[in-house]
Design goal:
It holds the Pfam family Acyl-CoA_dh_N. It is built from 13 helices and ten strands. With 452 residues, it is of the alpha+beta class. The chain binds flavin-adenine dinucleotide.
Amino acid sequence: MASLARTLRPLARAAASSPRTPLTRSVLSRAALRQQAPRCLSSTPKRRYDTDNVTTEGEPYDLDTMTPTPIFHFTETEQAMADTVSKFAAETILPKVREMDESEHMDPAIVEQCFEQGLMGIEIPEKYGGAGMNFTSAIVGIEELARIDPSVSVMVDVHNTLVNTAILKYGTEESRKKWLPQLATNTVGSFCLSEPASGSDAFALKTKAEKTSNGYKISGSKMWITNSMEANFFIVFANLDPSKGYKGITAFIVEKDTKGFSIAKKEKKLGIRASSTCVINFDDVEVPASNLLGKEGEGYKYAIGLLNEGRIGIAAQMTGLALGAWENAARYVWNDRKQFGSLVGEFQGMQFQLAQAYTDITAARALVYNAARKKEAGLDFVRDAAMAKLFASQVAGRVSGNAIEWMGGMGFVREGLAEKYWRDSKIGAIYEGTSNIQLQTIARLLQREYSG
Ligand SMILES: Cc1cc2nc3c(=O)[nH]c(=O)nc-3n(C[C@H](O)[C@H](O)[C@H](O)COP(=O)(O)OP(=O)(O)OC[C@H]3O[C@@H](n4cnc5c(N)ncnc54)[C@H](O)[C@@H]3O)c2cc1C
């Protein structure tokens, strides 16, 4: 306390005695003054939302009286989620991971068991048939699944963080009552934003919607749509009034069996091969007016908001993946493989790499859980989510790549999972905003804070 006061007092004195800022001064002296301006590195940021910030027990967060806890401190519910999913993934998913990757197909029994485990309605309130848990519980679940299979993880992630959240946040009470019980128990969802000509520049989308006498008609193509083979429920972004540019973008609900809906092509991919990724065509697909999600022309806002949150899920997928790759290799070098009369994990050159990698994973996880907690508390989390996704995907790529080398030839063959983790890691830098797009977001928000 005393040393803090010693540091702060001279700063306060300097601030009090500094001359008043003249109206005109050179650019250089302005820059010099800015550099001297004291600024605390950390502070309690302003709330972003007035609603939404409730604890798992439904009590509002009181940020002023809340006792800070270690970032990895979980509530009983969150810990239960970690334990249950970890067991489910190890016992039920692990035996099928290699086969699902080779066949590029998600076992329908796994999808069904994800529903049975309550993993498809994590944040859906109990009154709509969901598990009624918090956002961090969803993040815990996504991470634990990715530790064993990033493909199952992304299916659960997209369904929960993008699709369920879209209905919860922007749906009418009528549509919540209609769709949420299905999404929680038996219907997989997809999120259709990207198109052949619009990826990073998502709002340049060309899919059009027009009004009909009793609803809307959608025409166009979507590309790279996760879950499209398993899903029956699609959130589709289309432009209702291209003359307004991105302000014409509107979100609709489309069911798979609607006339004019077709899956045109299933992609063959480098990684997350059990997760389906398809091109979808919409040929004059007619939907009733009740399938409008939220308000006309607000689709772009919904997409931005959902992807900001969704990024924390992808970051968790990447930290789970990194941990899975690290553990797989650590077990091998510390238990199985001997060279020069010792376990290869006994050599210092190997130990230091394992220690560095684990430290990187822990740092990435801290970013992920900090972003999740900030979102849950109603604080501004956009920069945190972008940093978490950027860093977690970098760590996942690095650790899973190095893990192959730690295992030597055994890391390179398709007998084990080491090479798969690395292939799966590449997607982290691409979907829900590429790494360059995350850097752009981080830089834009920093510039706003530090300029002027
Ligand atoms: C397996 C998979 C699953 C997916 N799932 C879904 C889904 O469920 N729903 C959905 O809507 N979409 C989905 N996507 C699409 C995904 O979000 C896009 O691939 C992503 O946004 C990047 O778009 P793009 O592939 O067109 O790359 P591009 O936008 O063409 O980017 C190519 C390169 O240019 C860089 N670049 C682009 N703009 C800039 C810029 N302004 N500054 C600097 N660099 C830039 C990018 O960083 C990248 O390196 C999925 C994609 C894949 C591969």
